[in-house]
Predict the 3D structure of the following.
Amino acid sequence: MSISEYNGSAIVAMAGKDCVALATDTRFGISFKTVSTDFDRVYKMGPRIYMGMAGLVTDMYTVSARLRFRLNLYELRENRPVAPRVFFSMITNLLYERRFGSYFSAPVVAALDPVNGKPLIAAYDCIGDLEVVNDFFADGTSTEQLLGICETLWKPNMDSEELYEVISQCLLNAQDSDALAGWGAQVYIIEKDKVTKKTLKARLD
Amino acid sequence: MDFCIGIRGNDFVLLCEDMNAAQSIMLHKQDHEKMLDLNDHLLMTRTGNLGDGVQCAEFLQKNIQLYQIRNGYEMRSSAAAHYIRKYLADTLRSREPLEVNLLLGAYDVISNTPQLYYMDYLGSMATAPFCAHGYGAMFATSILDMYYHPGISVDEAIGILNKCIKELKKRLIINFSKFNVKVVDKDGIHKLPTISVEDGIHTH
């Protein structure tokens, strides 16, 4: 098993009409052993910017802490919350600094553009290749399962309630086929006026 | 080849470790205490390499005490946990990684909550109501899944601990003769009677 599959994770982000959703599983395991079943993988980086991190957990902590440091300095200097696209570049820069000797963790960022309210999903690999996608993105050990079901169920311009249903079903069913991810799910639905967090019960195996 | 286990109750954290000091096939000592008080409300136990464990534990203990001297107050448990995690993560990609897995039992006196942190040698960290390291963890975690409930008392936790030890004696090929048990609560760290397998294990 490769090092990015050592801990196991499942993350998916989906875009709707003026809303975006981010969902992760809540299992923390060391190879085949499950250690924690309520593990939080999502970090709030701005009023409408949420980042989920897949891959090796130690690098998840390190990358998110270093990013938080840079973000805090930016916000102190600029005296305003960071814009999503600037934050996306910040992540690319941080990850590419370790081009040879990379972190084994990659973020998935779901954000709402503060200017026009459109959804933005930033997809990365572990060395910082940024792709901004308009439909959905999946990462972690359940990537193949997630991509399959997302491709089937996603359609453009879903409102927030339908988006929540679709992303929840995609994650719950995909992580059922993955031994290393599961044990629950957290779904964040990000809209212009509010952010809702829901915790789902899943198959406990 | 080591084993350590932590159980979190409403107002305490119980940590237990085996007392073997072994290197490869040689068992040096059977009454070796590996648990270390990092400060008045922070207790750390470990598995893994004996030398790395001592270096790591003493270094962390002294730095956490230095924080207290410099600032005049104890390092808070979650701050200490993140500090320890960062130390492990930094050594991971440096000279040599420290081959130490840790369990940190803490009582946060400001929020009055007990906390149990699981850390492995890579620097992964998680909080859990109960967790264990080592081969024995595979047996102990299943028993804890069955018998643990939130709001457990110290006596009940020791009862479950005895069940785990009985199972290890029966089914684990490694022989542990003694177990060191300590509890952290709002009054600090207390040593409980050592559980000795030869004297018989009492489950209740």
Notes: The mean pLDDT of chain B is 94. Helices of chain B lie at 50-71, 77-92, 136-147, 154-171. The interface with chain A takes residues 85-86, 88-89, 92-93, 118, 120, 122-128, 131, 137-138, 141 of chain B (CB under 8 Å).
